[in-house]
Amino acid sequence: MNIDTRLFYAVNDFARDTPWLHPVVSGYASYGVVLFAGLLLGGWWIARHDNDRGRMVAAAWAPLGMLCALAINQPVASAVDETRPCRALHDIVVLHCGNDAGFPSDHAVMAGAITAGLWLVHRQLGVLSAVAALAMAGARVYVGAHYPGDVIAGLLLGAAISVAGYLLVRPLLRWLLARADRSPLRILFRPGAQSTLEESRT
């Protein structure tokens, strides 16, 4: 038995001993993505309120980086084609089980990418997202959907793709935001832009 499986059994034994936690952890494992959507919105709001072009570039990239990370993860997971523990192991607690390959975890990739993106926007928000990401990774193991290695790899892969993509597309995003700043879309990126737009029409 490898260490990944041993760690999974340790977490699963904890799940067996804590049935009162099942609804909370299972709910977060399935619907915690809503929290990350809120964090992305918070990153945009902070960047807009600060009227900081660099932060806004990072805030614009954060959701795009997540989508890129998930798109890249799909062929990787298909190529590895790892059977999830909920389908490979017997006599374990299973609260959720998907039909697709388990390595790397899509949920962890999403969480890692968003955390890296938000870290570029605002350090404190990045720390909050990191806590949420670790909780998501732990929850996915707790419910029986993934091995620990699946979620660790997912977090690292998501973060790496997000940071690398940001470095590549940052000049393009700066240019696009500069163009948007001269259009009605600027109300999405600058506080007070609405009043400026109205004044220009009078």
UniProtKB/TrEMBL annotation:
InterPro entries reported in the protein's UniProt record: PAP2/HPO, PAP2/HPO_sf
Domain annotation Phosphatidic acid phosphatase type 2/haloperoxidase: ranges: 55-166
GO molecular function, one term: hydrolase activity
Subcellular locations according to the entry: Cell membrane
Membrane topology: Multi-pass membrane protein
Transmembrane helix found in the keyword field: yes
Pfam families reported in the protein's UniProt record: PAP2
GO cellular component, one term: plasma membrane
TM spans (from-to): 28-47, 125-145, 151-169
Name listed for the protein in its UniProt record: Phosphatase PAP2 family protein
Organism expressing this protein natively: Mycolicibacterium psychrotolerans
